[in-house]
Design brief:
mainly alpha, 2 domains, 5 helices, 58% helix
Length: 145
């Protein structure tokens, strides 16, 4: 605060002020609630473990950023000033690559899920799961599924 300023116009800081935020693209604070919501949905997946928490949080943050970027690009358009491209489009493309990397790390893409299942089958865990399933269903081999 400028102590030499005009006393009538001097105001104390306003914690939590979002007056200057246009899209939230450059404000993690504005994106964090949505990131937490997205991460919560990922946590509910059966194959995601507690040890994956850092990747889950980062995936939620990147997904929330991409949602915000999409909205900003829709509002502002793709073109920038002076015939240059919009920098948000570049951020969006880089974010998409990062999202895919994180999704693959958590086996959230078809290819990474298939690789996980192959790995489980190769390690003999598939047979163990089948045995436990038979035990839970009454031990019959005539169960389809």
């Amino acid at each position: 605060m400028n102590s030499q300023g005009h006393p009538v116009t001097l105001r104390p800081r306003q914690p939590g002020n979002t007056n200057g935020a246009r899209d939230g693209v450059f404000s993690p604070r504005l994106r964090e609630p949505r990131a937490a919501e997205l991460a919560g949905g990922i946590r509910e997946l059966d194959h995601v473990a507690d040890v994956d928490e850092l990747v889950v949080l980062e995936l939620g943050r990147v997904a929330a950023l991409l949602e915000t970027l999409d909205a900003a690009i829709a509002r502002r358009g793709v073109g920038g000033q002076g015939g240059r491209g919009n920098g948000l489009v570049d951020l969006r493309l880089r974010g998409s690559r990062r999202l895919l990397e994180l999704a693959e790390a958590l086996a959230l893409t078809p290819r990474s899920r298939a690789a996980l299942l192959r790995s489980v089958a190769d390690d003999g865990l598939a047979e163990e799961f089948a045995r436990r399933r038979r035990d839970l269903l009454g031990g019959g081999d005539d169960v389809i599924g």
